[in-house]
Amino acid sequence: MKKLFYRWGANLIALTFMFSLMSACIPPASAGSLYDNYNQLVNQFPGYVDKLKQNGVSDQELRNFVQDLDKALQGKQLTSSNYNETMLNTILEVAKDPQYSNIKPAAVNSLSNQDISQIVSGQVPDDLKNVETAVKNVVPPVSGGGGGGGGGGGGGGGGGGSVLPATISDSVLNAAIQSAGAAGPVTLTAAGDSLNLTLDQLNRIQQTGLSLLVNIHGMQVLLPSAVLKISPPSGAVQFQLTVQQAVYQDVQDLLQSVSGRCKLDGNVYTLAAGTLAGDGSVQSMPQFGGQVTVLLPVPAAAQNAAASGKVKAWRYLGEWTEMGGTYDSTSGTVSFATQQGGKYALLETLVQPQPQPQPQPQSQPGQFTDINGHWAQQEIDAMAVKGFVSGVGEGKFAPEATITRAEFATILARMAGLTAAPDGAVRFSDVPANAWYRGMVGAAVKAGLVSGVSAHQFAPGELITREQMAAMMVRLMARDGLDMTISNSGISGALAPFGDAGGISSWARSSVALMARWQIMGGRENGKFVPRGNATRAEATVVLYRVLQKLPQ
C-alpha cells in the first residue's frame, strides 16, 4: 500500500488492508463483484475473515459491509495508480455508517502490532503479501480504458457488447449428474447470487428424471424434474435462478411490522427465476411450473427454538405471511413448498400473539376511498355490501393489489354461506392458529371448495393463479347445483381461442374451459389465458361477482 499509508493512522490502514483483500477475487469496478464473491473470499482468505469474526464482527455485518462497499465503488474507475487512495477513501466513507461500528476496531485487533508497525513504515506485512499479490493481479492497468478480463465461461471485455453471465461447465454438470445416482437430486452450488444453465444443460437434467437442488448463499431450492421443463420465450439461451440477501437497512425496514413479536433468524432472501436472451436481457418467471421446495438454513443459535416449533418460514409481500415449514435437525434447515419467487425468511416467535380478528366486511357502498372511478367499482361495492369482500383498512380496498390463496378461499366460503371451522378441523402446518383466515379456509376445504398444495400445506400466502381460481369457482358452482360437466371436445373447443391453451395444467383444463363457456373468465393480452398469472383484488372480485350472478338465488 506504499507511501499513501504514511498519511493515515495505523487503525485506518489496518481497515484498508482487511477490506482491500475483498477485491482480490474480482475487480471491484464490475457490478456486484465484491458481494457476489464473498463466499469465495471466505474460502480464499479464511484466516483473516475468522479474525474479524473472533473480534466481534458477525458474518451478516461483513456481508452487508461488502455489499455497501461494492455499491459505493460503482462508477469509480480503479487503476493500479489510484487503487490505494480510492479504496481507502471509499472504505472510510462506508465505515462511517453507525451499523458498522464493530468493523473498524475488529480490523485493528485482527492485525498484530508487528503488522501495523510494518504498514506504518511503508512495508507490506509478510502474512499479507499474498493478498497484495492477488490485488495487483486484478487491478486494471494505469491507463484504464475498456476491457477487463472475466473469469470462467462468462468472459469479459469492453467494446460495448453485452456479456452473458457464466454458466456452469459441462464437466461440472456431468459430475453432478453422476454423483446424483439413480435417486438424485442433481446438486449444484452457485459461487455468487445466481446459478446459470444453458437451456441444453437444463434439458439434460430434466431428461434424467431427477430433481435439481441448487444452493445459493445457503438457501437451497429443490426443483422437481417436471418444473425443469420450461417453455422459454423466443431468443432465450439461459435459465437463471437467483437468490439475493437483503442488506442491513432493508432488513430493518422489513422487520418493523413484526418488531417485538418475532425476530429474524438468519437473513431475508429474495428468490427469483428467469431466462436470459443472447443480449443479456432477463425475462422473469414469477411462477415456477409447479411446487418447489425451499430449505432455509437455521443459525446455530436458533436450533433449539426451531426444534420447539418457534422458528417458521415467512414470506414478505407488503406484509409478512407465515408459510410454516418443517424443521430438520440433521440438515439444520426449515423446508416449505412454494410456487413462486419472492422474499422469504425464518422468523422466530418471541411472544404468542393473540388471535387476529377476521376483517369485517364493508357494509355500505362508497366507503372505499380508492375505487372511485375504478373500472370494477360497481362489482366491488356490490360484493362488499353482501359481506363477501372486505377492505384492507383505513377505508381502502387496494384494487390493484394481488390476492392470496387464503383471501380467495375466504371469499368463496362466505359466498357459500359457510361458517368458520373449529381449530381442530384445520390440519395444515402452514396455517397459523392465530391467522384471521384459518376458520374460513378450514370450512372451504371441508366443503370441497379448495384443497391444499399438498397433504399438509395450504400455501395461504401464495398468490392465487388464474387456473386455481377457475378450479375453485367451478367447485362452488357445482356445489350450488349447476351442471358443470363438459366433454373432451367441449374442453378443446372452449380452449381453442387461447393461444397458450397448451400451457394450462391438465388438472385445470376442464375448469378453465367451463369458466370460458360460462363467460366468467376470458383471455388477457394477445388472446392468451395466462393460466399461471396472478389476479388483482379487483379482477378476482369481478369474476366472483359474475359467479354470484349464475348461482341460484
TrEMBL record:
Keyword Zinc on entry: no
UniProt keywords, alphabetically: Repeat, Signal
Residue segments, region Disordered: 139-158
Endpoints of the signal sequence: 1-31
Domain spans labelled SLH: 363-426, 428-487, 495-553
Compositional bias of kind Gly residues: 143-158
Keyword Oxidoreductase recorded: no
InterPro entries named among the record's database cross-references: Cell_Envelope_Struct_Comp, SLH_dom
Matches recorded under Pfam families: SLH
Stored PANTHER family: OUTER MEMBRANE PROTEIN ALPHA-RELATED, S-LAYER PROTEIN _ PEPTIDOGLYCAN ENDO-BETA-N-ACETYLGLUCOSAMINIDASE
Protein name: SLH domain-containing protein
Species in which this protein is naturally found: Desulfotomaculum copahuensis
